[in-house]
TrEMBL record:
It comes from the Bacteria. Belongs to the short-chain dehydrogenases/reductases (SDR) family. GO terms for cellular component: cytosol. This is 3-oxoacyl-ACP reductase. Transmembrane segments: none annotated. InterPro entries: NAD(P)-bd_dom_sf, SDR_fam.
Length: 253
């Protein structure tokens, strides 16, 4: 089995790479900074420098990985960008980075994977979104809107690629205990409800891909909380989510 993971040099992406390596698969990973990968790499791990915002670099890395292989079995896009967007506190550069990585990068990865799997009549493509993308309300953050877009983009590609034997799985996790999450919160995750350890997240994600699930939301408590919130009128949901974001950042109205 051949697996390629964009955004695979750290966090969930690298944890998934280790999971597939333990199963004996050949794994390619790419990121903007492959130097982050630990030095004691597995012999079946092939790292590449590539940026999901540049479709040519993603395509080149994927082509290098698949050269001489019979097929590309799994492609997972774990690349993502986050910046705090409470009360409009976001710079132009942060907004641009989120739009480029989370939306354009998602499309670029689907295109590169689609072309690599063309003619195989099989293959699985997965993308990491966010449980926040489940909710639709007027004043949701830019991050939430981009992750909602990721889910919708995945849905469009699923519909287009299904006749050709290619499955598409959108992953919408809640808070996963990664180094990045700890960095963003000064190592204090006390206000992150239903926190999932990374080993559990990897098990859920890999199983969802194997089962060709359309959309997987986890953990289950977060899923039902979001489903319940989605039933509220938009004005009330706006107020609740804004106050929740303020509380989590220790801001004051």
């Amino acid at each position: 089995m051949n697996v390629f993971i964009a955004g695979g040099t750290s966090g969930i992406g690298y944890a998934l790479a280790r999971h597939y390596l333990q199963k004996g698969y050949d794994v390619g990973i790419c990121g903007r900074n492959p130097e982050k990968i630990p030095e004691n790499r597995h012999e079946n791990l092939k790292p590449f420098r590539a940026d999901v915002c540049d479709i040519d670099s993603i395509a080149a890395a994927l082509n290098s990985f698949t050269t001489g292989k019979n097929s590309l079995d799994i492609f997972i896009n774990c690349a993502g960008s986050y910046a705090e967007d409470v009360a409009g506190k976001i710079s132009y550069e942060e907004a641009e980075e989120m739009l480029q990585t989370n939306i354009l990068g998602t499309v670029n990865c689907f295109e590169a994977a689609r072309k690599a799997m063309k003619g195989q009549n099989k293959g699985s493509i997965a993308v990491i979104a966010s449980v926040s993308g489940i909710l639709e309300y007027e004043n949701s953050s830019l991050y939430t809107k981009t992750k909602r877009s990721v889910i919708q983009i995945a849905d469009a590609y699923r519909r287009a690629l299904s006749p050709f034997g290619i499955s598409v799985t959108a992953i919408a996790p809640g808070y996963v205990d990664t180094e990045k999450l700890r960095q963003l919160n000064n190592n204090d995750l006390g206000k992150k409800p239903f926190l999932t350890d990374i080993e559990t997240a990897v098990a859920i994600i890999s199983e969802a891909i194997e089962r060709k699930e359309k959309l997987i939301i986890f953990p289950i408590k977060m899923k039902w909380m979001m489903k319940s919130l989605s039933l509220l009128p938009s004005p009330l949901l706006n107020i609740i989510m804004y106050r929740k974001a303020k509380w989590m950042k220790d801001d004051r109205p």
